[in-house]
Structure formats: structure tokens, C-alpha cells
Amino acid sequence: MTLFDIIFTGSEQALEACKSVVEQTIKEYGENEKVSFPNTAYSLPTIYAATGQKIGTLADLKGAIGVIESLIVKEQNLEKALNAGLATAVVAEVIEACKYVGGKNPYEEPCVGFIPDTVIRSMGVPLVTGDIPGVAVVIGEAPTAEDAAKIIKDYQSKGILVTLVGKIIDQAIESKVKMGLEFRVVPLGYDVTSVTHIVSFAIRAALIFGNIKPGDLPELLKYTKERVPAFVNALGPLSELVVSAGAGAIALGFPVITDQDVQEVPMNLIVQKDYDKLVQTSLEARGIKIKITEIPIPVGFAPAFEGERVRKDDMFAEFGGGRTTAWELVRKRDLSEVEDHKIELIGPDIDTLGPDGGKLPLAIIVDVAGKNMQEDFEPVMERRIHYFTNYTEGVMHIGQRDIAWIRISKSAYEAGFRLKHIGEVLYAKMLDEFGSIADRVQVTIITDKEKVEELLEEVARPRYEARDARLAGLTDESVDTFYSCLLCQSFAPAHVCIVTPERLGLCGAVSWLDAKATYELDSTGPCQPIVKGECEDEVKGSWESINKRVAEQSHGATTKVNIYTIMEDPMTSCGCFECICGIMPEANGVIIVNREYHGMTPLGMTFGELASTTGGGVQTPGFMGHGRQFITSKKFLYADGGLARVVWMPKELKEALKEKLIERGKEIGIENFYDMIADEEVGVEPDAVVEFLTKVGHPALSMDPMF
Ligand code: SF4
Ligand code: NI
Ligand code: NI
Predict the structure, then answer these.
(1) Domain 303-454 class, CATH top level
(2) Contact 252, 225 (CB under 8 A)
(3) Percent of the chain with pLDDT over 90
(4) Which residues lie with the beta carbon below 6 Å from any ligand 1 atom?
(5) What radius of gyration do the chain's Cα atoms show?
(6) Carbon monoxide dehydrogenase subunit alpha ,N-terminal domain spans which residues (predicted)?
(7) Rounded CA gap, 604 and 518, in Å?
(8) ipTM score of the complex?
(9) Is the pLDDT confidence value at 435 over 90?
(10) Which ligand minimizes its atom distance to the CA of 417?
(11) According to the model, what pLDDT value does residue 181 have?
């Protein structure tokens, strides 16, 4: 059989299986039964993206079988073979969708099955920054559990998101690979068809971030090929079905690397039988470059360890968290005051704690010198301490400044991890990420109680306070430069964020100071200064300079942006916004919903549904994606009535911002504004919300009409 024949055979098998599954499901539930995946606005994503058709019921699904059939044309050429592969991909989606019919929850731990939209959105930033440099899909079975673990961990240590399909999941369990989204190892399911869940991840990325029009298959395939850095490892015996699914992956632009004998297709279907080289070959095939910094520590170091928790039972040493004093500080110093790579420990190390470990006070001071170093960069670099220590295997970091809380696990201690290794990590990573700012870095770690407390009062606190004063004084009026951020353009090609002191990027991760530092680090990088020039409209927030930049960088897609209003030419959204704000006409105000909230909102749409109409770099008056911290900014809806317009928020978001909401409420002259904001406990029915607002006398009700 030729490779093409194998693919066609696989696609036909898939089609037959699909027909019988759909028939069976209809028999059981009837044609009118609804079919959808949970927590997505794009159901069923593959069919919707490829054809523009939304599947609602089993009858629709039956209708889609014709589309699949039409994709299988058995001619001996690559194009037809790839189409047949796409047919198999669609089949996989149909079969998986049937598993969810009747409100069933077909997947059990550790398998995740369908991936909700919100997870994809949360991956936006790490994928564009290269923090997640790629997505591996490992299907099948490695020769041994050890081989499987080695491959998975190798990907994991490089920050690659690894998804698993088939028996490899059992091999990962057997070799105790830590799994879950936080470890970037995600078991999808045991059936080959569960691979659809990562395919639909890629496809929804195109819809969410790329603003690809459903039904535009050529653009969709172009997007996944150019912008989604995924690839497939097919391990163990290959059935015709797996080969044809592989052809589907190739059609999407994802190369397939296998350990089996097959006819190779240059760049796309590659044989690699040496398991030690599999990872390397795969990364090269997809053009993924990994930046590695070798850090001399006895434990692993990778972004994949960020989510790792050190629980009480696994803990050897603890610092801060209310139990001891602990703080951290990055400070700018003169070149003469910093000795590069000096790492000093003042006070006892953790091996003095005895066999059961214990707690110690802690101060971490990172001194940075360099001719481009500015005091403004101190908080930006200081916040990275959190990430860098967390990326260390067996080390957990929470908080910041003088509320830092660090735990070191028993296994890290047993592996030889000591406090100076924290210094090694910080030294290496600060230079690595801030190379053009930092010429010299030295780290001082103090555990001597008296000294920790003395320096907190004398050195750290005054520095924190000075910074806060500077931040408070940082307003849009007080600076002459804003920044544009284009990081998300690798996903959302038409999106441009405008970052100002009072409006951070909508991902919540890029403040004006961050943007400034990013520009300083790389003057041709994603953040570029906009010299403000003359303001055209101070209320709506309109500047000629901004419009010019946005028009240029969105390639003409957007020509006018007002940064202080939601009503007229609001800023575009890429898709990775922390919150969405949208008008609630009945209340003459707006609601805000955060990405983590899965429930319904008073607009009759969930976060995901609202997000699906707001992302992709388009302007949607009346709706806007934004960062959490923007809500309590003076510039939030500045032209539309400000914070007083906010009538509803999920409880969790409200709680998280409580102090700031109360404070900002007082500033706008409303003593108990916090209590006037409705949440899901008040209700998600517009009537219930309005009734509540009326009862508490919410200001929005008597403000100028929004329209
Ligand atoms: Fe993306 Fe905007 Fe955040 Fe930049 S600031 S990373 S463009 S969301
Ligand atoms: Ni960690
Ligand atoms: Ni984004």
C-alpha cells in the first residue's frame, strides 16, 4: 500500500465508525437532542471553523457527515491525502462530541477531554512570549515507561506544553510524571479520537486570537501552520486510523515525528527511532528554538515547575508567610558597589535546621548595576523574583516585597539544594532576561534575624514607600510617552495594546513600567514608545499619535482608538484579556466579568460567549477587554461616567479588588460603593439585578443615558 492508500483506508474506517456512532447516539437520544462541548462559544469548533456551520443537534451532526464524505477523494496526490486527513480530524470531533451528549461527563481524572475556551485564553500570553515555546501531541505508546517519562520530562523542562493520547498516559502515571495543566502535561484521553481536543485548541486559537472567519478554511490552515507551534509524536505501532489522523495534523501544519517505519514526507512526516533524539528532531521539525540558561543547582529549573505546590508534609524549610519576617528587594546600585556573581549568605543555612527542617527569617537583596539601569525597573525586576524562584523544582514562592513566602521541599533539600542556590537562580535569570539593563548582579541572602529586621526598616521599607509614591504620581498626564505593545500580534495580527501609566495592557501583565523596561531591553522589540504630542480629546482619550501608531501597526485595520471610552472606537482586544466589560442597557451601566468566572452574566452570556465577540483585534463598541487593575484606575470608562457605571461583577473579582474598590468609591464620593455592586448572589437575571440596584440606590440608574 502507498502512504496515500493507508491514509484513505484510515479515513474510510473513521467515516464508518463515525456513521455508526452518530446513528447509535440518535437511536438513544433522538435527533433533536442537543450536542455541544462544555464551556465553549465555538461548538463544535472544528466543523464551525472549517465550514462556518454551527452544530446544535444530533440532526445537524448527521448532516455534517456529508461534508466528511466529500473530503475523501481517493486520488494519489498529497492534496487529496491531506484532505482525507482533515476528514479524519472532523470525524474525531464528531465521535468525541457524541460522548458528551445528554450532559454526560465522559472523562475521568487524570484525563481532561475537551479543553474550555478560558484555558486557551489564559495560554495566550505565555504562548506569545515564548514562555510556552510549543505544544507537543504525543500519541500511542513508548517502548517502556522510562522512555515515555524521559521524553515527557524533556519537553516539560523546555517549557513545552505536552498533551498525551493513548497508552502513554498509563506510562506517565506509572513513572510518576506530575500531570495537570500547571505542570504543562495534559493527558487528553485514551481513544485516538481524543486528539481532537488539542486540534480544537489550535483551531479555537485561530478564532479567538486570529479573528479568522468561520468557514475560511484556507486562512484557518494558514493560521495554524504559521502561528500555532504544535507538532505530533506518534509512537508505537501505527494503525491506518492513526496515520490518517497524522495526515490531518500535517494539513494543519503540524509535523509528525514517529518511531515507526513509514514512507517519509520531507519536513512533515519524519522517522526518528532514537528516543534520545526524538525531542530534538521534533523541535527542529517545527522550528522551535529553546533558550536554555544553565544554572548550577541540584534541582530542575523550568517554567513548568511554576504551579508546583510544596505542601506542609513535603516541606523542609519555610520563610515568611506570617511565620517569620521575609522580604525581597531589587535595587539599583553603582557599578563600583556591585561585584558580579557575588552570592553571599549572612546567617545560618537550612542544613543547620536539623533533620526535620524548620523556619527561618529571610531577606533577599538583588543588587543590579548597569549604565541602562533605572530605578523604574526595580519593581519590574523584583516581580520576576517570584517567577524565577517558582521555576525552581521544589521551591514555592508566594507574595512579594515584605509579604514574601517561600517554601523549600524535602526532596529539594535532599538533592542538595541550599540557600545560595536561590542566589544562583536569581543571578542567572536576571542577567538572562535583563541583559541589556543589568551589567552586574550580586545577590545577598540574609537569615540572621536581627539583620533581616533591621534592614527591613532601614533599607527595604523606605525603598518600597518611595516607589509607591512614584507610582501614585504616575499619571497619563505626568508622562510624555505612552507605549504600544505588539506581543500578541503573533496570535492576533491586528491587535495593538496602548499602555499608559493609568491603563495597563489588557492581559494584566504589562504595566507602563514593564513596557518601558521592555523597550529599554530591546529597542526593536514588542513595546515601542509613542510620544504623546497634542491631545485631541482629553475626555475620550484621543491622541493623533496613538491613532497614527495603531493604524500603522494594525496595517490599517484600525485607524482610530479612544483609550478612555467603551462607546466610541474603544481599544481592540486580542483575546487574552483578564476581564470583559460590557454594557447592561437595563441598568444604564456596565458589567465586568473575569476569565475565571464560568457562570452566566446579566447580559445573558458567559465570559466565553462575550469574549468570542470581543477578541481577534477588532473594535466592538460597548464591549472591551481589559486588565483587572484597570477597573480602579481613574481612567476606567473616564468618558462614560467612570467606576460609578459598574453595576455587576462576579463575587470573586469583587473580593479580590475589595480594598481598592472601597477606596476608589470614596474618591468618587460614594461611601459604600463596594456594597452597591451586584454579583451572582444577587442574581444574573436583569430584573433581579435592577431591583437590587434600585434598592441600594446605585448611581448608574440616575446617570446620563449611556446611549
Ligand atoms: Fe498582549 Fe496587550 Fe498584554 Fe502586550 S499588553 S502582551 S499586546 S495583551
Ligand atoms: Ni517551584
Ligand atoms: Ni493577548
Answers:
(1) alpha beta
(2) yes
(3) 82
(4) 125, 485, 487-488, 497, 499, 505-507, 509-510, 574, 576
(5) 27
(6) 20-101
(7) 39
(8) 0.90
(9) no
(10) 2
(11) 86
- Grid cell at residue 33: 437532542
Ligand 2 center from residue 304 Cα (angstroms)? 8
Residue identifier of the C-alpha nearest atom 8 of ligand 1 = 507
- Grid coordinates representing 545 are 499619535
Is residue 474 a contact partner of residue 499, using CB atoms and an 8 Å limit? no
Domain assignments of the chain as residue spans, ordered by start: 3-103, 117-271, 303-454, 481-702
Distance between CA atoms of residues 189 and 169, nearest Å: 8
| Ligand 1: centre distance to CA 154 (Å) | 29
Ligand 1 atom index nearest CA of 499: 5
CA of 511 from ligand 2 middle (Å) equals 25
Please give the CATH topology (third level) of the domain spanning 3-103: Helicase, Ruva Protein; domain 3 (1.10.8)
pLDDT in tens, 154-193: 999 888 999 999 999 999 999 999 899 888 999 999 999 9
Mutational test site, ligand 1, from 527, 571, 574, 580, max ligand atoms within 8 Å of CB:
574
**Probe target for ligand 1 pocket from 128, 497, 628, with the most ligand atoms within 8 Å of CB:** 497
At 127-160, the pLDDT tens digits run: 877 788 999 999 999 999 999 999 999 999 888 9
Tell me the longest C-alpha to C-alpha distance in the chain: 80
Centre of ligand 3 to C-alpha 68, Å, is 33
CA 279 to chain centre: 23
Q: Do 206 and 228 touch, CB atoms closer than 8 A? A: yes
Q: Ligand 1, atom 6: nearest CA belongs to which residue?
A: 487
* Ligand 1 pocket test target in 489, 530, 573, 576 with most atoms within 8 Å of CB: 576
Query: Minimum-distance ligand to the CA of 310?
Result: 2
Quick one: pLDDT at residue 262? 93
Going by CA atoms, what residue is nearest to atom 5 of ligand 1?
505
CATH class held by domain 117-271: alpha beta
Does the pLDDT at position 244 exceed 80? Answer: yes
> How is residue 42 written as a grid cell?
465555538
Q: d(Cα 327, Cα 453) in Å, to the nearest integer?
A: 9
Asked if the model's pLDDT at residue 306 lies above 90, the reply is no
- Cα 125 to averaged position of ligand 3 atoms, centre (Å): 6
Q: Quick one: pLDDT at residue 522? A: 83
Take residue 55 and report the three cell numbers written for it: 452544530
CB 525 within 8 A of CB 538: no
Domain spanning 481-702, CATH class: alpha beta
State the distance from the centre of ligand 3 to the C-alpha of 692, rounded, in angstroms: 35
Residue 399 identity (one-letter amino acid)? G
CA 391 to ligand 2 centroid distance, Å: 5
- pLDDT tens digits, residue range 205-231? 999 888 899 999 999 999 999 999 999
CA distance 528 to 526: 6
Query: What is the pLDDT at residue 292?
Result: 67
Q: How far is the CA of 109 from the centre of ligand 2 (A)?
A: 23
Pinpoint the alpha helices (H) of 158-292. Answer: 168-174, 196-208, 217-227, 240-251, 275-285
Nearest CA among 12, 578, 485, 467 for reference residue 243: 12
CA distance 507 to 497: 10
